[in-house]
Amino acid sequence: MHVSQPIYDKLVWNFRFFYYTIWHMSKMQDAIEGVPRRDPNRTYKDTVDQSLLTEKGKALIALEQNVPVLTERDASLRIKVIDKCGHACTFCHNEGTLVNTPQSRDRVSVFLQSGSYEGFQAGKIEARDNYFRQEIQKAIDQLGIKEVHLTGGEPTQHENLPELVGFLSSMGLIVKMTTNGETGKGKYAELARAGLQSISVSIFGSTEEEYAATQPANGTRYGRRWAQHKLSQSRLAISEAKANGIEVKANCVMSDASHEDRIKRLIKRAYNEGFSLRILNDLGNGQESIASIYNLLADLGAEPISRKVVAGVSGSVSYFRLPNGQEIGFKQIREVRLDHVCNGCHLDKENRCEEGYYGIRLYKKENVPQGQNPYIYGVCIQRMDLAVGSDQFWNRGYPEAILNLTEEDYASLTQSN
Ligand code: SF4
Question: Which range marks the domain in which residue 3 is found?
C-alpha cells in the first residue's frame, strides 16, 4: 500500500504522541503510587550487597550469570487442605491464614502479626465437596492449571488425604505436597497409589538440638525428646515416600553465616538419605542470608549448572553441583508483581514485599453458612486483605490478569535468555 508523505508524517507523529502519552502516563502512575518499577529479571544475585560476599562468593555469582536457563509457564495452584499441624515453627506463615482456635496458643502466622488485617481461619477441604470440585474444574478450564500443591498445616494430618489426592489426579492434575514429615510414615503406599507424585519436605536440622531450636522455647512440649521423635519420623517418611516412587525434595532455610555448620550437616544428610536439597534464604534476614548462602556454596566448591524460572510467578531456582556430584538448589525470588492486585501496595512502596507474586492459593473459609460457597482465592500471603471469594475471583478480571502476566513474563524471559 502506498502512503503519501504528509499522511506518513502524520501517522509517525500520531504514533510518537501515542507512545509518549503511554510512557508518560506510566511514569506518572509510578510517581503517584510511589512504587519503583520492579524488574522481573532481577533476583538476589543481582542485588546482593558486595561487601558481604567473599571473593569466592563474588566469583560464583559471576559464573551463575552464564548458566543455561529453563523457562516454563506457571500452571499451578496451591491448596491449603488443612490447618492442623503438630509443629509450631516460629517462622511459619501458615499460608497467610490465622491459626485455628485449638492450636492458636502455640502456633504462629508470622505475616499476620505485622498487618492490621486479622485474616481468616481455613477449614479442611474434602474431595466430595461439590463446591471444591467446581473450583478445580474452573481452575483447569479458565487458568489451564496442570499441577496442584497441597499445603497446610500439615497435609498428612488429613484423614481423607488419599481420597483428595485420588480426586485431583483423576482430574488429570499432577499432585505435589509440602510436608514436615511428622505423620507421613505408613501413608505413602496409599498416597502413591492415589497419584501423589512429589513431596517437598521442610527440614529443620539433622540433630535434635537444631530441630528443637525452630520451635517455641517453652521447654516442655517441644523439647529435645519431641525433636528426637519428629526427626526420626521425618527420616522414615522420606525413605517410605522414596520406596513408593514418590520424588522427594527438601527445603531448608539459611539465615546467616552462623548456620553454616547446620547447613553442611543437612547437605550431608541429603546425600546419605538420597533426597535433593534446596536452600532458601531467610525472608526476615535479607542480604545477610543471601550472601551467607553464596559464600557457603563457594566454600564448598560448588559450580553453577542451571537455572529454572517459572514465568508468571516469582519463584526460580539456581542449581549448583558440589565436587562429589551432589546437586543443591538455591531458591531465588524474582521481582514479579501482578499489577491487578499489587498496584499501589503499601508494602511494595516500603520495600517490604517479601515474596512477590508467588501464584494463587485456594482456601476453604471456616464457618461459612451452608448453601454459600466457602472458597477463597489468595493472591499474597502478606496481604490476605486482598483475598477474594470465588465469585469475585472468576468474574472480576483475575484469570485474565494472571494469564496475561504469564504470557508477558514468558516472552520477556525467553527473549532475554
Ligand atoms: S500485594 Fe503482595 S506480592 Fe503484591 S506487592 Fe504487595 S506484598 Fe508484594
Answer: 1-33
